[in-house]
Design a protein that fits this description.
heterotrimer; A alpha/beta; B mainly alpha; C mainly alpha; B: mainly alpha; two-stranded antiparallel sheet; 20 helices; 4 strands; globular; C: mainly alpha; ABC transporter involved in vitamin B12 uptake, BtuC; disordered N terminus
């Protein structure tokens, strides 16, 4: 029985500068159904939605391959405006609301109802008078449909986050002819009761004939509300199934997939990890990093191990090392080899022997306009007073020494550059990452925190970086904590892996634990160890 | 009980700038020893002279472009026109209207260019405006000192420096443009009103019946009727004499204003509260002007105030134009264009995703502001009567912006009310400061320096406060989500 | 990332090319007009060295991340206070007079600089806008101060019992031109004010040393990337205050050196636009809103002062009775600032 699909995206392929992000993905939505779009980070969910939406980022980078059909007719959507005209609306994760405007104004933004006047006839349509009464009537109706009980003339500023979500929805359903609504991680910022309200509203909207696509990783929500789901993995289409035909475990498994390859060659391992010798311990640890909050985490990392921290984006894994380095406000207790760290004091972690390679190498990790030798020597110079030469009362930067050291690092990491004096900003992403690593190593740390170590690096360099990490761990006993969104990477080099969900440790797994276990942990399923 | 306490202290905090300046003004007036009538006369002259320019600053604030330090450029457009009009020998109200005709396209072009430039510097519009003002001044000086007479052949003993290259420092406008606008009598205004309202009605009828487009003509019919009545009345003896004046006694102006405002507000209240039964209607806000007018009327029983009311005469046309600009600012807000400007001003990101052409909207806002600033400068020049060629436009930006800020406006929000209050307070201080300085410190110069310091200081503090808040707020909001328990 | 070959024009920047060409044209025009080439050169060198330290003040400010220091007026005011105080105290030796002035000026500037730095830390992102008006306000406020300071020295106050200090104070009897004349010599008709040049280059050297010290490197990093710097354990707010303080100090020293070369102290509204000229000079030399080197200062000041020095007599020859020099200065300095501003915030939506 061929049911007519409202939306049929077939064989969508998308490449960003030679990197294939979508490799022949399908998405099929029936009218009035709630469909979940699932997958790990980097699976391609956001890119697929960008394609559907005609976002400029798609078209300015070479467009896409494949077809998009709405109600059986092929369409070309090249701008968000066109998407809207075809009846596709999107409720963003970052609210597109204006706090200083009333709910009515926000609902009608850019689409105000107006009455013609004399000047509007002579000069321009834009001089038409606003028809506030009609707009308020429409807004009242939209609010009623979303079930939100609030006056339409209230200002959005000061509304609880949950209400704002509903105003966003109200805005989308106000658009005439809306057939499909896309929700991007809608419950991420809501409390439990707000999330329940939202799911109820979604059901109402779907019942009125509007289809819903919602991107989420929360398995319980999917089982509660979705009719069907599509799973993507690494840019590939895995499957499309009806919710009633599957289970939480199966979905988790499909999201992770089967990967048996190891990224690094096996090395000699005659370490003895003493579980009583705790290098880094965190208790009731909170980090206020916007988008990656840590919410009361407990964790012990043993000396000499390579410890992995994984989890989906936004769940808090990135917040962990950033908090320790004092880049964001923290609370709770963090101990280094038994000694409490005062994280409010800037540079505390660095001076006590913890070095950090940030995931944001251009933003945090480098001085792009400065030469490589300056970048590499900087932290050691500031914290430990190295690379300085005394001239009586003065201590000046010893450029010669820094250059020599940089040469050594360039050889060690095989950094492709014209020399130690080249500006860091001129290097490719992978080589920049190596410079960041070099800077951390120059500090001769006891504990090394590396956040997304091989992001944006090609396969050959990936191997080199990971092998180096293993090497310094085995040979020098440096405790390494690797935070990464690539499970393969973590399972290749780590002794133990903690999966972070909702700002806390969901479970700690071994590299050879089953895919389902990893999947469930990432999805935040309760009932772990 | 607690809610009320908060409200008053809050009100005080929100309006701290205005309150501070009211106190300062009262003290300064007292210290100067000037009579209320003297201060009042000077003040009302200055309001007429500067009010329009200050009001031209509102639109850029609305559109998120901050304080328009570039209004100097609008003033320059006006001055270019004034020079040529004086050179060609036009006088009176015709001369003034030709200035308007000549300067407006120039101002529109300038506004367009400034808008384009500001679009390249989103986020730094204010510093760009400041520097642009100085840059434009340099070009203006180059034009007036070397091009006029040097490149463009102009021969005039009165206007050019000896040697016929470069314009003189001061040009006397007496006899040509001085008081051109101020001397338009009310009779002439009644005539203009009649003609304009009939034309508008005519155009609308054309649209309605010839092109079959539905437009609302009720209001127009009312206006035409009113105009005809006024026109008829103006032939009645005593009324003719009254209307033949070009300046209205402040007392009469007060009475007329009271009647108009109470009528308008009552109409608003009746419609919104009783006919439409609108919950969102701000009753206190609507009643406030009525109470204000009644209070002002009661004040006339104080002898000094009564003296003031009988002493000051305000130029009707100029004040009418200021009132019209206030109405225009409000009317603009009520259009789609105005709403777009507000949206762009609140959030360019949201505006962009809602399909609004952000760049175009900003350029339009700048064009409006520059043209209005240009007209404001024309009003200023015709009132002050002397054209200080190289200096008239330089302080315009500074003082207008300072006045607006004194009235309680900020980089993000500015209203008609704040502009008017600001002009009143700022210029009062300006008038009395030198004498107050002389009486208090035996040094009039000190008073003069003080008022310049106030102008700069108010702007510096306001700019700092604007940047200050922006830093603080996000931090306070962010800490919330961290601690949500589940 | 696309690879683009930067043309020479792109690298140097259009306005800089216009300015250099303009300068050369003026120089060439000077010769046939019969103007003394050596005279012009002497003047240019003198003005270059006397303005230099004021422009140098831009470097620590830009490097520490507070942008172009339009509020250098604060430093200038501190310097003027020190200079007038020194005259009030009346020393017979011009050298002592000068150094006391420098001492007091630097002392005042430290406090003003720290306070100013604290304000700037609260207004991150709008430093230039705020600093311009803080600068103006301070000058306006000082007008009141100059009027009321209880100084008694005949050099300082109006004769015949006038109120307050004079607008222009002659330094002939104190330390006017003392540095200029020290070890000065003539070469091929060009006068070289050795003392002045040595002082300027000395100041440049000291600043260079400072920028190479551990603190200096940290300060420069703060301006380049505050998050990077913070992650290396450095208090960026303190670095910014340090940069502001050093900038203000150089402003104080700069105005004293400038005045001694000029021969007069100018109070009241004279220094109002000096901030703009210093900013323009360093931008002409190649600096940007976020990076400034000492080489930019040396080159930029030379070009800027050069044009002004040469333009005046050249134009006076062509069009007598004009103050074109002033107009040119306004157009050039504001033009280049506008250009620099438009380059940084590239149409961010």
């Amino acid at each position: 029985m061929t049911e007519k699909f409202l939306l049929n995206m077939q064989n969508i392929e998308k490449e960003y500068f030679g990197n294939k992000v979508l490799k022949g993905v399908n998405l099929q939505i029936k009218p009035g159904e709630i469909h979940a779009l699932m997958g790990e980070n980097g699976a391609g969910k956001s890119t697929l939605m960008n394609v559907l939406f005609g976002m400029p980022v798609i078209h300015s980078t070479g467009g896409f391959e494949g077809t998009v059909e709405i109600n059986g007719e092929q369409v070309e959507i090249t701008s968000p405006q066109e998407a809207m005209e075809h009846g596709i609306g999107m409720v963003h994760q970052e609210f597109m609301l204006i706090p200083g405007f009333t709910i009515t104004e926000n609902i009608k933004v850019g689409r105000e109802i107006s009455k013609p006047t004399l000047s509007s006839k002579i000069f321009s349509k834009k001089l038409e008078e606003l028809d506030i009464d009609s707009m308020r009537a429409d807004a009242r109706e939209d609010l009623r449909k979303t079930g939100l009980d609030i006056a339409e003339y209230v200002k959005v500023a000061g509304l609880p986050v949950g209400y704002m979500q509903f105003v966003e929805i109200a805005r989308e359903i106000d658009k005439t002819g809306v057939k499909l609504l896309v929700f991007d991680e809608p419950t991420a910022v809501l409390t439990e009761s707000e999330a329940d309200n939202l799911l109820e509203t979604m059901k109402k909207i779907a019942a009125s004939g509007i289809s819903i696509v919602f991107i989420t990783h929360r398995l319980d929500e999917v089982m509660a509300v979705a009719d069907s789901l599509t799973i993507l993995r690494d840019g590939e289409f895995v499957t499309r199934i009806e919710t009633k035909d599957t289970t939480v475990e199966r979905i988790a498994e499909l999201m992770i997939g089967r990967k048996t390859e190891k990224l690094v060659d096996d090395m000699e391992d005659d370490r003895v990890i003493d579980t009583n010798n705790i290098a880094l311990s965190m208790k009731d640890y909170y980090v206020d990093m916007p988008g990656e909050e840590v919410k009361g985490l407990d964790l012990d990392i043993y000396k000499g191990e390579i410890f992995g921290i994984g989890g989906l984006a936004g769940q808090g894994k990135i917040g962990i090392p950033n908090g320790i380095m004092g880049l964001y406000k923290t609370e709770g207790e963090v101990k280094l080899f038994g000694e409490s760290l005062n994280l409010d004091k800037l540079g505390e972690a660095l001076s006590k022997g913890i070095a950090f390679v940030s995931e944001d190498r251009r933003g945090v990790g480098l001085l792009l306009d400065e030469p490589i030798y300056n970048n590499i020597a900087f932290s050691a110079m500031q914290i430990k007073g190295e690379f300085l030469k005394s001239y009586g009362l003065f201590r000046l930067f010893d450029v010669k020494q820094a250059k020599e050291h940089a040469e050594d690092m360039i050889k060690l990491f095989d950094i492709r550059t014209t020399g130690p004096s080249q500006e860091a900003g001129a290097l490719s992403g992978g080589n920049q990452q190596k410079v960041c690593l070099a800077r951390a190593i120059t500090m001769k740390p006891d504990v090394l925190l590396v956040s997304e170590p091989t992001r944006g690096i090609d396969i050959g360099a990936k191997k080199l970086v990971l092998e180096y990490l293993v090497k310094i761990n085995r040979e020098q006993g440096i405790t390494i904590v690797v935070v990464s969104s690539e499970l393969v990477e973590l399972r290749s080099v780590c002794d133990r892996i903690a999966i972070i969900s909702d700002g806390k440790v969901n479970r700690i797994l071994k590299p050879d634990s089953s895919d389902a276990e990893f999947g469930l942990a990432m999805a935040g399923a309760k009932g772990g160890e | 009980m607690e809610l009320e306490k908060r409200t008053f202290a809050d009100w005080l905090n929100e309006n701290k700038v205005v309150v501070l300046f009211v106190i300062l003004c009262v003290l300064a007036i007292y210290a100067s020893g000037y009579s209320l009538s003297f201060v009042g006369a000077e003040l009302f002259t200055r309001i007429g002279r500067n009010g329009f320019t200050v009001l031209s600053l509102l639109i850029p604030v609305l559109a998120g472009m901050g304080l328009n330090f570039g209004i100097t450029i609008g003033a320059i457009a006006a001055q270019i026109a004034v020079f040529w009009v004086v050179y060609w020998g036009f006088e009176g109200i015709q001369g003034f209207l030709i200035c308007v005709l000549l300067s407006t396209p120039i101002a529109m072009l300038f506004g367009f260019l400034v808008g384009k430039l500001f679009n390249k510097m989103k986020g730094s519009e204010m510093i760009a405006g400041m520097v642009l003002g100085y840059f434009a001044d340099g070009l203006y000086q180059f034009f007036f000192l070397f091009v006029i007479g040097g490149v463009i052949p102009v021969v005039s003993e009165t206007l050019l420096i000896a040697g016929n290259v470069g314009v003189k420092n001061t040009i006397d406008l007496a006899g040509n443009l001085k008081y051109a606008l101020d001397t338009v009598s009310m009779l002439q205004l009644v005539d203009v009103f009649l003609v304009v309202s009939i034309i508008l009605l005519g155009i609308k009828l054309l649209f309605k019946y010839v092109r079959k487009i539905n437009v609302d003509i009720k209001k127009n019919i009312v206006f035409v009727a009113l105009a005809i009545v006024l026109f008829g009345l103006s032939y009645v003896g005593p009324i003719t004499r009254f209307l033949a004046q070009d300046r209205l006694l402040l007392r009469h102006a007060l009475y007329i204003m009271t009647v108009i405002i109470i009528a308008v507000q009552v109409q608003k209240i009746v419609i919104n509260k009783h006919i439409k039964k609108d919950e969102a209607f701000n009753l206190t806000g609507a009643i406030f002007p009525i109470i204000l007018m009644l209070v002002l009327n009661i004040l006339q029983f104080i002898p000094q105030v009564s003296q003031l009311l009988d002493f000051v005469r305000i130029p009707v046309t100029t004040y009418l134009l200021i009132a019209l600009l206030c109405l225009f600012n409000n009317a603009l807000l009520n259009t789609v264009l105005g709403q777009n400007m507000r949206t762009v001003g609140q959030s360019r990101v949201v505006a962009n995703s809602a399909g609004i052409d952000v760049d175009k909207t900003r350029v339009i806002a700048m064009i409006f502001s520059t043209v209005l600033a240009c007209w404001g400068q024309l009003i200023y020049l015709q009132n002050i009567g002397t054209f200080s060629t190289y200096g008239a436009h330089t302080q315009v930006g500074q003082f207008a912006i300072a006045a607006l800020l004194v009235g309680g406006a900020s980089v993000q929000k500015a209203t008609n009310k704040q502009a008017i209050i600001g002009v009143i307070l700022f210029h009062t201080l300006f008038i009395v400061a030198p004498q107050a300085g002389k009486n208090l410190f035996d040094n009039a110069q000190l008073g003069e320096y003080f008022r310049v310091f106030v102008a700069y200081g108010v702007i510096a503090v306001s700019l700092a406060m604007h940047a200050w808040n922006v830093v603080k707020k996000p931090k306070e909001e962010k800490l919330e989500p961290v601690k949500t328990s589940d | 990332m696309e690879e683009r070959k930067e043309s020479l024009v792109d690298k140097i920047g259009m306005p800089r090319i216009i300015i250099i060409s303009f300068f050369l044209i003026l120089l060439i025009a000077a010769v046939p007009l019969g103007l003394s080439f050596t005279g012009l050169l002497s003047d240019t060198i003198r003005r270059w060295a006397m303005y230099g330290i004021l422009v140098l003040a831009m470097v620590p400010a830009v490097q520490s991340g507070i942008g172009l220091n339009f509020g250098i007026s604060l430093g200038i005011v501190a310097g003027l206070l020190g200079a007038t105080l020194s005259i009030q105290l009346g020393f017979s030796s011009p050298w002592i007079s000068l150094f006391v002035a420098l001492g007091f000026g630097t002392f005042f500037s430290i406090f003003l600089g720290i306070g100013y730095g604290q304000i700037l830390n609260r207004v991150k992102g709008s430093e230039m806008t705020v600093s311009t008006y803080v600068g103006f306000s301070v000058i306006a406020f000082m007008n009141i101060v100059w009027l009321s300071l209880p100084f008694t020295s005949g050099e300082l106050i109006w004769p015949l019992g006038g109120k307050g200090m004079r607008n222009t104070i002659s330094l002939q009897s104190s330390y006017g031109e003392v540095l200029n004349n020290w070890l000065a010599f003539d070469i091929a008709g060009v006068r070289v004010p050795t003392g002045l040049i040595l002082f300027f280059l000395g100041a440049c050297f000291l600043v260079w040393l400072f920028m190479r010290s551990k603190t200096g490197v940290a300060m420069s990093a703060t301006g380049a990337n505050p998050t990077f710097t913070k992650s290396s354990g450095i208090e960026t707010d303190r670095m910014r205050i340090l940069g502001t303080m050093v900038s203000t100090m150089l402003g104080a020293i700069g105005i004293i050196i400038y005045s001694q070369s000029y021969g007069f102290l100018q109070l009241y509204n004279a220094p109002l636009m000096m901030g703009f000229h210093c900013v323009a000079a360093v931008l002409i030399g190649g600096a940007t809103v976020s990076r400034a080197k000492i080489s930019h200062v040396i080159l930029g000041t030379f070009l800027f002062q050069g044009i002004l020095t040469v333009a005046l007599p050249v134009v006076n020859n062509l069009l007598p009775e004009s103050n074109l020099s002033d107009v040119i200065r306004i157009i050039i300095s504001n033009g280049i600032i506008l250009y620099a501003l438009s380059k940084t915030k590239g149409g961010s939506k």
